[in-house]
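Q: Hi! New to this. If I give you a protein sequence and the SMILES for zinc ion, can you show me the bound structure?
A: Yes, paste them in.
Q: Okay, here:
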Amino acid sequence: MAPSEDPVVDRAPHAHSRSKKRNHETASVSGSSTSSEDSARRKKRRDRKALKRKNAHSDGLTVAVNGARPSAFATRRNSLGKAARDPRDEPVTKKGVAASAGSRARSPSPIIDFDGLSRPSPGTRERREEDKEKADERLVKMQGAVRTLLECVGEDPDREGLLDTPSRYAKALMFLTKGYQVNVEDIVNNALFHEGHNEMVIVKDIEIYSLCEHHMVPFTGKMHIGYIPSDTVIGLSKLPRIAEMYARRLQIQERLTKEVAHAIMEILKPQGVAVVMESSHLCMVMRGVEKTSATTITSCVLGCFERKSKTRNEFFSLVGVNR
Ligand SMILES: [Zn+2]
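A: Thanks. Here is the predicted structure of the protein with zinc ion bound:
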């Protein structure tokens, strides 16, 4: 949850379901918007940013922001891809390639890299490939940092209860961010089946535990994933694992929702995907506004869920978000 945002329930899913006529602003900007006004503002900001970036690299690395809009869907996918593909997610080792060859040649898909990683952080590969010695070095460094934090809040890091805290915290943080180095192919592991099934599939109430990247405190909640296959279905247990891969990172709920939807779209190539997530952010609940009952709802609908309000509504009513 961005610190600047109001602790209001995100109304996007309701907007999806209520608008009979397709409203581009509310229906397509994947529930990360809190209102159409908000999303208009965000779009402006996005456009400005893109323009700046475009001026910086005139090699066409970024998508065009003006001129003819190919189609609402294409525009939307571009803007989503751009938003989620944070420059910080770019693997350092591939930067040279990306700059010379353009974004298309960088990876087989915008979601999954050649080596099966999806949106790794700059240090992911180093972390994944390091030997025992390097891993220990990393832990020692982290422990020092936690010790400093303890001192800074006025605690005594040498009192009995805190003696092992730096080590425990360092290990916990490594666990809670291990999603960066998960290989998508390992998750999917041939669990794609050509069943000729073309009806909606929903996995409800997937428990999510993630870390807010603004405060590094948890946000927890439930995610519901639905898709309509194009003949191919995926093993049901894989959907929660895909969600977890993106949850075990420093996240914001909006991006988490989007990344899960786009990954499933990429892996399965279904007719459409819908993801909705309801969660409670400790950074909101425990500090700041202290609205303990506030729930944040985000959604992302792609493909036929985006095009057909009837399909979208069916999904939202089946997962019970549309109360
Ligand atoms: Zn936060």
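A: The pocket of zinc ion is lined by residues 1, 212, 214-215, 281, 283 (CB under 6 Å). Let me know if you'd like me to explain how to read the tokens.
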